Amino acid sequence: MSDEFLGDPIQLPSEEPISKQPQPARPRVLVVDDEHRIVDTITEILEGAGFQVLPAYDGWAALEAAARFRPDYLLSDVLMPRMNGVELAIAIQKMHPAARILLFSGQAESLRYY
C-alpha cells in the first residue's frame, strides 16, 4: 500500500503556553434583600456569570460585610427592615466611593418616594 492513501498527517493545534500573569480579579457584588429566595437566586445567577458575590439579608449585615468585602457593586432592595436600601446605598457610597449602586424594589409603591 502506498502512503498516498493516508493523505497529509493531521495537524494538532499547538499548545499555547500558560500565562503566568495574574488573572484580573472578578468583580465583587454585594447582593442585599430581606427575601432570602431573591438574594439566593441573584447570587447564583451572578456567580454563574463570573462575579464574586456576597449575599446579605438585611442592610446592617450588608454594611458590616462591606467593610471586609469591599464591593465593586451594590445590588439592593429598597424596602427592608432596620435599614432600607437607600440608607444602605448612602453608607456604602461613603465607605467605597467607587462602588456602583443599583437599587430595586418588588413594590411599585416604594419607587414614588425615592
What does the secondary structure layout of this molecule look like, with pairings?
Layout: E1 28-32, H1 36-48, E2 52-56, H2 59-69, E3 73-77, H3 85-95, E4 100-104
Parallel strand pairs: 1-2, 1-3, 3-4
Helix pairs in contact: 2-3
Average pLDDT for all residues: 85
Q: Report the helical percentage.
A: 25-40%
Q: What is the count of β-strands?
A: 4
| Number of helical regions | 3
Largest sheet: 4 strands, parallel
Shape: globular
Radius of gyration: 23 Å
Main sheet: strand order: 2-1-3-4
Taken as a percent bin, the fraction of beta residues is: 15-25%
Low-confidence stretches: none
Sketch the topology as an H/E string, one letter per element: EHEHEHE
**Distance separating the two termini:** 83 Å
Task: Describe the structure in your own words.
- Helix 2 (59-69) packs parallel to helix 3.
- 31% of the residues lie in helices and 18% in strands.
- The chain has helices at 36-48, 59-69, 85-95, and strands spanning 28-32, 52-56, 73-77, 100-104.
- The protein contains three helices and four strands.
- Strand 1 (28-32), helix 1 (36-48) and strand 2 form a beta-alpha-beta unit.
- With 114 residues, the chain is an alpha/beta fold.
- The radius of gyration is 23 Å and the shape is globular.
- The longest helix has 13 residues, at 36-48.
